Amino acid sequence: MNYSQIFIVLNKKMGLTMKPKHFLLSLSLIFLFQFNSSAQEYVVQVAAFSEPVDIKIYFERKGVKGVYQDVNHNLIYRYYIGPYPDEEFAKRVETRTRRSGFPNARVVDLQAQKEKCALSCAPIEGGEYIEGGDNVTGEDELYIRNIFFDFDRSALNETSKTRLDNLYTILIQNPTYKAELHGHTDWIGSDAYNNALAKRRSNKAKNYVAEKGISRSRLISKAFGEHNPIARNELAAGRDSEKGRGLNRRVEIRIVSETGEIMWNVTKAIDVPAELKLD
Predict the structure, then answer these.
(1) Which CATH superfamily is domain 131-273 in?
(2) How far apart are CA 233 and CA 83, in angstroms?
(3) Mean pLDDT throughout 112-131?
(4) Which of 106, 133, 169, 213 could cross-link 265 (Cys pair, CB 3.0–4.6 Å)?
C-alpha cells in the first residue's frame, strides 16, 4: 500500500479532511520526533580537573574547538565536545582529540550514563561504582575507590588501608602521577570543628601513603569540611539520613597527571542512591 492509499483509508476511517501534502508532512514530523526521541547521544569528555581551566588557552590553542564546561556539586570540572548522534563518529572525534594532546579523552554515552545515575546504590562498602575506563595496571582491584569514616572519627579501617595500598601501587607504577586527597565530613558539628576533622582525615590518608615511601610532594591534602556533600544529610520532614551522612564522611582520592588532569581511567566515583541525590 502506497502513501496515497494510506491517506485515502485514514481519511475515510477517521473523517479527516487533510490534504495529501499536509498528511505527508505530518508523517514526516512524527517520524523525526520518534527518531530523535529514541536516538542515542554521545559526547567526548576531553579532560577533567579539580579546578577550572581557561578553555581558550587549554583547549583551543591545541586545536580542540567547541569545548564546554560542566561542573558538578562535588567541584569536578569536566570539559566536553559534542553531542554526537552516532557512537562511531564520536569514537573518531575521541581519536582526533587524543592526537591533539588529550590522551584521556573518552566517549560518554549520555543515555547509559543517565541510566547508571538512576540506579540505587548498595551499602557504602559494597556499593555500585561508576566512571573510569581501562585500568593502567590491568588489574581491576587496583581501581581507586574513595574511603569512608565512622562518625567523628579519622582512624583508617582495614578497607581504607587496602584502598590506600592500591593508591601506593599506582603511584609507584606511574611516577609522574600525583594524588589529591580531599577530606569531607557530614554536617553535624560546627564549621570550624568539621574543617579540622576533614583535615585530620585527609592527612591520615596522606601520612599512610607517605610512610610507605611515596614523596609527600606527590600527595596533595585538602580539607572541605561539610561544604561539599555528595548526598543528603537530611531527608524530608527533617529526618536524619545516616546513610547519606555516611557517604559524606569520606576522603576522595583523585589521581592527577603532571598537568593536573584527573585520570578517570584509574579512579572510580561514588554512586549515590536516588533518594539521597542532591538537586
Answers:
(1) OmpA-like domain (3.30.1330.60)
(2) 34
(3) 44
(4) 133
Secondary structure, 3-state, 215-247: CHHHEEEEECCCCCCCCCCECHHHCECHHHHHH
Residue 164 and residue 205 in contact, taking contact as beta carbons nearer than 8 Å: yes
Q: What is the mean pLDDT of residues 3-17?
A: 50
Residue range 167-199, pLDDT digits in tens? 999 999 999 999 999 999 999 999 999 999 999
pTM here? Answer: 0.70
The predicted structure's pLDDT at residue 112? 79
Question: What is the mean predicted confidence (pLDDT) over 36-58?
Answer: 85
Measure the CA–CA gap between 59 and 232, rounded to whole angstroms. Answer: 35
CB-based burial label for 38 (10 Å; 0-12, 13-18, 19+)? exposed
Picking from 160, 250, 124, the residue whose alpha carbon sits closest to that of residue 198 is: 250
At residue 117, φ and ψ (nearest 5 deg) are -70, -20
**Per-domain residue ranges of the chain:** 42-115, 131-273
Question: Partners of 70 in the beta sheet?
Answer: 78
Strands ordered across the beta sheet of 178-183 = 147-148, 250-256, 178-183, 219-223
Query: Rounded distance, CA 178 to CA 171, Å?
Result: 7
Q: Which CATH number fits domain 42-115: 3.40.50, 3.30.450, 2.30.110, 3.30.70?
A: 3.30.70
DSSP 48-103: EESS---HHHHTGGGT--S-EEEE-TT--EEEEEEEES-HHHHHHHHHHHHHTT-T
Q: Answer whether residue 121 shows pLDDT above 50.
A: no
Instruction: Give the Cα separation of 169 and 144 in Å (integer).
Output: 10
